Amino acid sequence: MPARRRSARVASREEPVAKKPKTEAAEETESTKTPELEVGDELPSLKLLDNEENEVDVSEVAKNSKYLVIFAYPKASTPGCTRQACGFQKSYQSFVDNDTKVFGLSTDSPKAQQNFVDKQGLKYPLLSDPKRELIGLLGAKKSPSGTKRSHWIFVDGKLAVKKVQVSPEDSFTTSLKDIEGFVAKNGGVKPEAKVEEKEDAKPEDSKPEEPETKLEEKAVPVAEPEAKSEVEKPATETDTQPEAQPVAQPEAQPETKPETE
C-alpha cells in the first residue's frame, strides 16, 4: 500500500512538469504576435524593396491610390504561386482600367522576385518582405516561417477586403470581382480624366480659327485696288492730247498777206 501511494504522488508531480513547456510556448507566441490590420484600418509607414531594389513605402502607395490590391504568396517560381501571379497578370489590364494598382508580396529576395518577373513577364512590382513585417501586419504569417496565400484590397488608403488562406485561382478572380463592385458603387478616377480631356480639346477647337484669319489676309490682295488706278492712268494721257490741238490752231490763223498788197 505505501508503495502504491508513493507512485501516485510521483505521477501527480510529473504531470505539472509536462505542462510547463506548453504554457511557456504559448506565452512566447503571444508575446511575438504582431497587431493585425482590420477592415477600416490604414497601413502604417513601412518601407520594403521591390524586385528592382527600389524602396517602396506601402503606406504612401495606399494613400495615393484609389484602389490597391496586395496579394501574398509563399515562394516565388513555385507551381501554386506561379498560377496565382500569372492569374493577376492575365487580369492586369482589367485592374488598370479600374484604376487599381497591383503588388505581389513574399519573403523572397529582390533578385528572386526579379527572376520571377522575367520568367512570367509580370508587369506589376513584387515586394520583398524577408522579415515578414508587412505579411505579419496583414495577418498572413504561417508558423514557423511561412506565408499564407492571401490578398487584400485598400480603398482610398483604408483596408476594405481581407482574404487570408485562399487558393491561387480565388485570389485573382475574387479580387477583380470585388474591385469591379467597388468601382460600380464608388467610381474611380476616370471622371477626372474625362475633364482633363475636355480641357485639352479647347486648344484644338481654337486651331481651326487660324486658317480663317489666313484666308481673310489672302483675300486682301485679290481685290487689287492698285490695278484699277493703273487702268485710269492711260485715260489721263488721252485727255491731255486733245488739249494740245486747240492751242496750235489759233496760232496758225493770224496771217496778214492780203493787207500788205
What is this entry, summarized?
By secondary structure, the protein is of the alpha+beta class. The chain is built from 11 helices and 9 strands. The protein has helices at residues 2-32, 58-63, 79-90, 92-97, 110-120, 133-137, 168-186, 190-206, 209-223, 225-252, 257-260; strands spanning 47-50, 55-57, 67-72, 100-106, 126-128, 141-142, 146-147, 150-155, 158-164.
Can you describe this structure?
The structure is a single chain. The chain is α+β, with helices and mostly antiparallel strands. The protein has a domain at 47-199: Glutaredoxin (3-Layer(aba) Sandwich). Helix content is 59%, strand content 15%. It has 11 helices and 9 strands. The protein has helices at residues 2-32, 58-63, 79-90, 92-97, 110-120, 133-137, 168-186, 190-206, 209-223, 225-252, 257-260; strands at residues 47-50, 55-57, 67-72, 100-106, 126-128, 141-142, 146-147, 150-155, 158-164. The strands form 2 sheets. It has a 7-stranded mixed beta sheet with strand order 2-1-5-4-3-8-9. A two-stranded antiparallel sheet has the order 6-7. The longest helix has 31 residues, at 2-32. It is globular. The termini are far apart. Residues 11-36, 191-236 have a biased composition (Basic and acidic residues). Residues 37-174 form the Thioredoxin domain. It is found in: Nucleus. One of its GO terms (cellular component) is nucleus. It catalyses: a hydroperoxide + [thioredoxin]-dithiol = an alcohol + [thioredoxin]-disulfide + H2O.
